[in-house]
Specification:
The chain is an alpha/beta fold. It folds into 2 domains: about 1-225 and about 295-345, Alpha-Beta Barrel (TIM Barrel), CATH 3.20.20; about 225-295, no CATH class. The chain contains 14 helices and 12 strands. The strands form 2 sheets. Strands 1-2-3-5-8-9-10-12 form an 8-stranded parallel barrel, surrounded by 6 helices. Strand 9 (about 180-185), helix 7 (about 195-205) and strand 10 form a beta-alpha-beta unit. Helix 10 packs antiparallel against helix 11 (about 280-285).
Length: about 350
């Protein structure tokens, strides 16, 4: 089981600290780093910089929002990053959600899965060195009635693995059928079939199996002896995902928890959050929505949790280290995770 880490995200980041952290992760043997893209940093700039500051670690967009770029530019950017990193790049794509797509980018969120499928298909054409002549429901190249012609991206052909960050059933099926890897969130080993059933169905429809995918599941880790305090400290993040990571009508994180059996809890937390009762939403989060979806507790407890991820078929762990208070604590926590995964084997 490989270890991945993430950079970027919602808060401000110190560039020098980021580079030092990723370089230290590379020395620890971490396999890859994913750059987040929400409404803060973009997913590309940091990776271009890191490509020149590292030697072995894979770099990937986790994720590049498909509505923020046209597919041809997504492909051009991916191929450029692959060249800059000497073939270490992984293209992570996702549809994001209506609040960001429509609120920040001013683009339509309609038919997100269709847009994702067409983006993947156009990127594959570009990577293969083909002229971009494509007729889809959302993307048509060249533009009809204009003066354009089908153009081939002027870069060497590239073998770039595509990872998809998906949560909805149909999108999970597409991931199983078409992607090299899955970037999973809201994932619990105890309830893995809430995702795996659909990934497997998609894989089998394409003559593949679940083993053909790199199952890269995100897991937040917090190690300490005061287990109750650790659990309570993680509840605000769960409440935010249930209520804030999407609109009241569209929240894929909330839906995933519902599929895992937490229907009443997920709906209640969301209702409190969207009505402005944030503290009540946090208090409404049951312990199990932390302990079954994260790795929290003593060193032995965390090791046992990570073992469960491996046992159900997770091939890569995207370790979330937001429990660490300082840069030093973050690196210490990562080193502890690497040691535990090495012990598991």
């Amino acid at each position: 089981m490989k270890i991945q880490i993430g950079i970027g995200g919602y808060g401000r980041a110190n560039t020098s600290n980021m580079v030092e952290f990723v370089q230290a992760a590379e020395r620890l043997g971490v396999d890859g780093v994913w750059s987040a893209e929400a409404w803060g940093q973009d997913a590309v700039t940091s990776l271009a910089f890191l490509a020149g500051q590292t030697e072995r670690i894979h770099i990937g967009t986790g994720i590049m929002q498909i509505s923020a770029r046209v597919p041809a530019m997504t492909a051009m950017t991916a191929m450029s990053l692959d060249t800059l990193s000497n073939g270490r790049f992984r293209l992570g794509l996702g549809a994001s959600g209506p609040q960001v797509v429509e609120g920040l980018h001013g683009a339509s969120y309609a038919a997100p899965l269709t847009r994702l499928k067409e983006t993947v298909e156009i990127c594959r054409m570009a990577f293969a060195g083909e002229k971009l002549k494509y007729e889809g429901k959302k993307h048509v190249l060249p533009k009809p009635g204009g003066e354009g012609k089908a153009i081939r991206i002027d870069q060497p052909r590239a073998d770039i693995p595509i990872y998809l960050a998906t949560l909805a059933p149909k999108a999970l099926e597409f991931t199983g059928a078409a992607a090299e890897g899955w970037l999973g969130t809201s994932f619990s080993p105890e309830h893995c079939e809430a995702h795996f059933d659909f990934l497997r169905r998609g894989a089998e429809s394409a003559g593949r199996s679940l083993a053909d995918l790199d199952i890269c599941a995100a897991v937040s880790v917090a190690i300490g002896d005061n287990v109750e305090e650790l659990i309570n400290s993680r509840k605000a993040g769960v409440a935010f995902n249930m209520g804030g990571m999407g609109s009241a009508q569209t929240n894929f994180y909330n839906d995933a928890f519902q599929r895992a059996g937490y229907v009443d809890d997920a709906k209640a937390i969301q209702a409190l959050w969207v009505s402005g009762k944030r503290e009540e939403a946090v208090q409404r989060v049951p312990d199990a929505m932390v302990t079954e979806f994260q790795a929290v507790g003593t060193r032995d407890m965390v090791k046992a949790r990570l073992q469960k991820y491996r046992d159900v078929g997770v091939t890569s762990l995207n370790i979330r280290l937001d429990a660490a208070k300082t840069s030093e604590d973050r690196l210490d926590l990562l080193a502890a995770c690497v040691e535990l995964v090495n012990e598991i084997g």
